[in-house]
Write the structure tokens for this entry.
Amino acid sequence: MTSSGTQPLVSEGFSGRMRVQDPALPPGQHLVDRFPVMSAGPTPVVHRRAWELTVTTPSGRQTPWDFAGLTRLPVEDVVADLHCVTRWSRSGTRWRGVPVEALLREVDDAGARYVMAHSYGGYTTNVPLEDLLDGRAWLVFDHEDEPLSAEHGGPVRLLVPHLYLWKSAKWVNGLTLMSHDAPGFWESLGYHLYGDPWREQRHSRD
Ligand SMILES: Nc1nc2c(c(=O)[nH]1)N[C@H]1C(S)=C(S)[C@@H](COP(=O)(O)O)O[C@H]1N2
Ligand SMILES: [Mo]
């Protein structure tokens, strides 16, 4: 089986199993058209008006944000490829949100090297602080020109597209700056602490 033109080199083959690696995708990933919902628990329903997020510094100082405050920050349109550790990827997904940097700029991050993202419902995931800076991570609230649906993390989710998608915390409600790294929910269960899809950092020993 072959594919050509702009079609990626993904072949389902007659067995439905054979896949040719697409050089535009991280190793072991294949493209899907639909947007799967991957949630470890029930979907919290939080309205934009009720949404709150707390930024906590290493010294314990807290800065609260609400939706109106978030959207007063510079809003950006983002096009990103998504890579889930369960091996599906989506290319060219469109989002609107605020760079995480814009929130962190307002706080004293002295001594901070890592961030724990917290979600409504208790989900957590850890990311190095520098990975949230320089236009590489956003707090997003629109997807494909629509308000982000609850099942995909609305009203606001973290988007860190250069890491596996489990790092993109849905229903985000906290960013805690830390001096040392610590595992979040999936990382405590054996997922990689960093999660670079291009280096296939799926599990802690990868
Ligand atoms: N709060 C929260 N965020 C989460 C999850 C979750 O269970 N709870 N699942 C993660 C995982 S494993 C993936 S692959 C993506 C899935 O996002 P989607 O449901 O929009 O596809 O969300 C990530 N963020
Ligand atoms: Mo995932």
User: Anything to note?
Assistant: The pocket of molybdenum atom (ligand 2) is lined by residues 38, 84-86, 165-166 (CB under 6 Å). The radius of gyration is 18 Å. Residues 67-71 form the longest helix (5 residues). The chain has one domain: 51-199.
